[in-house]
Amino acid sequence: MSHGILVCGAGIVGLATALALARQKQPVTVLAAEHYHPRVYALSPASQRFLAGLGIWDALPASRITPVDAMEIHGDADGTVTLNAWQAAKPHLAWIVEAAEIERVLTQAVRLSGIPWIADRCVGYQRGAVLTENGAQLRTDLAVGADGAGSPLRAAAGLVQHSAPYDAVGLVTHLDAALPHHGMAVQWFHDDGVLALLPLPDTARGPQVSMVWSAPSAQAKALQALPAEAQADALRAHLAVVTQGRLGDLRMNIGLHGFPLFLEHAQMTAPGVALAGDAAHRVHPLAGQGLNLGLGDAETLATIVARREPYRGAGDPRVLRRYQRARAEPVLAMRLATDGLQRLFASRSAPAAWARNAGMRWVDAMPLFKRLLIEQASGG
Fold first, then answer.
1. What share of the chain is helix, strand, coil (3-state, %, to 5)?
2. Element (H, E) at 182
3. Beta strand pairing call for 193-203 and 184-190
4. Which of 93-97, 121-125, 357-361 has the lowest mean pLDDT?
5. What does the pLDDT look like over 260-276, one tens digit per residue?
6. Cα gap 190→244, rounded to integer Å
7. H helices of 190-286, where?
8. Secondary structure (DSSP) of 21-35
9. For residue 92, is it left (φ>0), alpha (ψ between -120 and 50) or beta?
10. Contacts for 207 with CB less than 8 Å, ≥ 6 apart
11. Would strands 80-84 and 70-74 be described as parallel, antiparallel, or unpaired?
């Protein structure tokens, strides 16, 4: 028995890939154990359209979606850029949605669509078959690796991965804010990394924001090692200095989670295998585009597989080369942009500091350039 297309991974990208393939009338099976995590994502208009086309967007509870209408970006001196949705004639720049909510709705949609789900994990691959943790050998025309940054399928298929650590940790938590965010995301480039505060729905405690701080590894580890109360006090003091009271007093209301940051990209295809999402690439989170890249992979792969010639299988090398070519430019562009910005702001030299802040002031004074930035980030 062949499982047609086997999607390894039940994260957002894996579930979206499976659902998109099913909507295109492709035989698809999910191989994964369900999992959830506390992160939130900024979904671009392109990703929102993709999820809407899958019937997912309207199933998300409106009370858990926060539109981002504007964004402020602060340099490490006097450079500032403000982007507003109206500058590009768009209703919103992005939408902040909890990862758990997206995964929950995607899981329900996959189940309701009748897509087979095998509660097992990929541990190996032989041409035309995925080997599982429970000892099964699942024949498949195409195995899709959407199984995360440590992708077992990628390793088993021998796909080459290039990885470079940033010596930084992404720290995430949710905060009670003293002042309303008004649907604005704010980001600071600072000596201690890149800090972003993303708007969340208000609760009975008042305004809420999600923090994503790309902190130097030593500083992050020291903060994570503190007892809970001391950790909360230290983070509160740090936020007060960096944000200069932008949203008033900021207090943690959930635990602090951390993940090491890497710049990674892999060969995206091999005979009978395609990678998507973090299994294929990881970029610095300063632009919040990692998931949007992964959803772009899912949409592109499903479309190309569905439009292949009738005499070609889903894992045909020519079909997979089309997928790899289609994703090469957007993935490379995002990798260069995020890594370039990270390196520019990591430099402590006086000329680099002057150049980056002068550049931000120039961009902020150019409405046409800001519109182009918004169009690029939104996916058109």
1. 40, 30, 30
2. none
3. antiparallel
4. 357-361
5. 999 999 999 999 999 99
6. 12
7. 217-224, 228-243
8. HHHTT--EEEE----
9. beta
10. 176, 177, 178, 179, 180, 181, 247
11. antiparallel
Task: Find where tokens 């994260």 sit.
Answer: 11
Tokens representing 106 are 């995607």
Give the long-range contacts of residues 102-106, CB within 8 A, separation 24 or more. Answer: 102/12, 102/41, 102/51, 102/56, 102/60, 103/10, 103/11, 103/12, 103/15, 103/34, 103/35, 103/36, 104/36, 105/56, 105/59, 105/60, 106/12, 106/15, 106/16, 106/19, 106/56
**Residue 99 contacts residue 38 (beta carbons within 8 Å):** yes
Residue with tokens 């035309």: 128
Thinking of the domain 5-66+97-163+262-345, which architecture would CATH place it in? 3-Layer(bba) Sandwich (3.50)
The domain locations on the chain are 5-66+97-163+262-345
What's the residue count for the chain? 380
| Token pair of 339 as six digits | 């890594």
Q: Which two tokens stand for residue 350?
A: 């006086």
pLDDT of 36 higher than 70? no
Between strands 269-270 and 122-126, the pairing is unpaired
At residue 212, the 3 state secondary structure works out as strand
273-275 vs 122-126, strand pairing mode:
unpaired
Three-class SS state of 56: coil
What are the start-end ranges of the H helices in 280-378? 290-306, 317-346, 350-364, 367-378
pLDDT at residue 152 is higher than 50:
yes
